[in-house]
Amino acid sequence: MKAEMRRDGQQRFDVLVIGGGPAGMAAAVRAAECGAHVGIVDDNATLGGQIWRSESEHGPTEDAAKWYQRLLTAKVTKRCGVRVFHQPAAGVLLAEGSDDLYELRYGNLILATGARERFLPFPGWTLPNVMGAGGLQAMVKSGLPISGKRVVVAGSGPLLLAVAAYLRRHGARVPMICEQASWSNLARFGAALLRHPAKIIQAVQLQRELAGVPLAPKSWPVAASGREVLESVTISRRGKLETINCDYLACGFHLVPNTELPQLLGCQVSSGYVQVDELQGTTVQGIYCAGEPTGIGGVELALVEGQIAGLAAAGRAQEARKLFAERDRARRFARILDQAFRLRPELRNLPSAETIVCRCEDVSYSCLQRHASWRAAKLQTRCGMGPCQGRVCAPATQFLFRWNPDSIRPPVFPARVESLALAGRREQQAAQ
Ligand SMILES: Cc1cc2nc3c(=O)[nH]c(=O)nc-3n(C[C@H](O)[C@H](O)[C@H](O)COP(=O)(O)OP(=O)(O)OC[C@H]3O[C@@H](n4cnc5c(N)ncnc54)[C@H](O)[C@@H]3O)c2cc1C
């Protein structure tokens, strides 16, 4: 099938992949290598996702380079800096670039939209220089000078170690890494790594890079202080309070999957993850999902799920089945990750009454406490209705109040008025 590019940005693909991280790249490559006409869309300036993007300073890792090369050879059509925000009719997605609007039509669709950091609110977390761990890493990758700065890294999950090592390589001083998980959980996680040789190599490398940096388990930030910007952070460390002077706090509590687009398209989500069958097919015919939206499991799981989805979407189910054993191994690691870094209940007590929970709409913890559900809080306080569309506060309230953020409405990302007008026209046409 040939691409039909028109001036208004209309294109049709046999297989369309949304998300250009490892899962999306692997999916696009495998589908294109089967002869399908494949398009891949990512909202960042380059492909690679959270882990491979901006590796250019030292060149891509060997693994990443292999996938970039295969993508090039397989002649996948790339659309970078383009974000999918709506589905006006079955088989059609609308996506915005900085100046363009694309109407993307597909035979089969693969959603590989990744994950984001989970933020938990505590007094002072909205001060300048308190940032997400991955967020600060991304800013340094984009040129933020970090050399000589004191950075406390806190929260939960292996990302903290990767970020601390990255910041140190760029000259930051890291006085402490605070991990909310207990020593026993970390020890179990370490023991489980022995069954995953690739992970052991990564762990040893991280250990070397972080030599001399204390890793404090059962520790978390309780307050960030400073007059105009962050000056110090107070942590709870095994039940005792300790204050550390610093220039930045890099803080994230593991990851939450980006399930908004799959949900908008009607895919069933169960326990927070997109439900998939053995071929990565969602509950919607012709829509597959791979990578972090189906479970937080790291780059190996993302790659193998992406390959299975790509092969299945191109009609090669038999070939996809050969990868099931590899996926089972990677999924076992995902389960260990989930157990080791499960959030401790004490973290529900982090916010004070005045702590802002929804920073887009300035909604405090005490305002939210009066409501029984996410929906009621949204209606009464505008929580989750700002520019981030609840991407930060919804996972926080899910943990703090055990709410279920159930309402997904188009557009899944803020879009220009002209784009919304086209969406409306297409919806009308589809209804006729
Ligand atoms: C902030 C952050 C930093 C991380 N840093 C590291 C690290 O340093 N080392 C490490 O080992 N692991 C890191 N990880 C974990 C790593 O991302 C995963 O292990 C794995 O790479 C996930 O691959 P993926 O393809 O599923 O998702 P991702 O790599 O997240 O790729 C998904 C892509 O889809 C794009 N996207 C989402 N929605 C849309 C849309 N509607 N339209 C267009 N594009 C869209 C996203 O912008 C993203 O580029 C990080 C994760 C996060 C969230």
List keywords for this structure.
FAD/NAD(P)-binding domain; disordered N terminus; binds flavin-adenine dinucleotide
Ligands bound, unique: flavin-adenine dinucleotide
Provide the CATH top-level class of the largest domain.
Alpha Beta
Classification by helices and strands? alpha/beta
Number of domains: 3
Question: Strand percentage, roughly?
Answer: 15-25%
Which runs of at least 5 residues are low in confidence (pLDDT < 50)?
1-7
Helical amount:
25-40%
Major beta sheet summary: 7 strands, mixed
Rg, please? 22 Å
CATH architecture assignment of the largest domain: 3-Layer(bba) Sandwich
End-to-end gap: 27 Å
The CATH topology of the largest domain: FAD/NAD(P)-binding domain
Anisotropy-based shape: globular
Helical stretch tally: 15
Mean pLDDT: 93
Corresponding CATH superfamily of the largest domain = FAD/NAD(P)-binding domain
How many E-type strands? 21
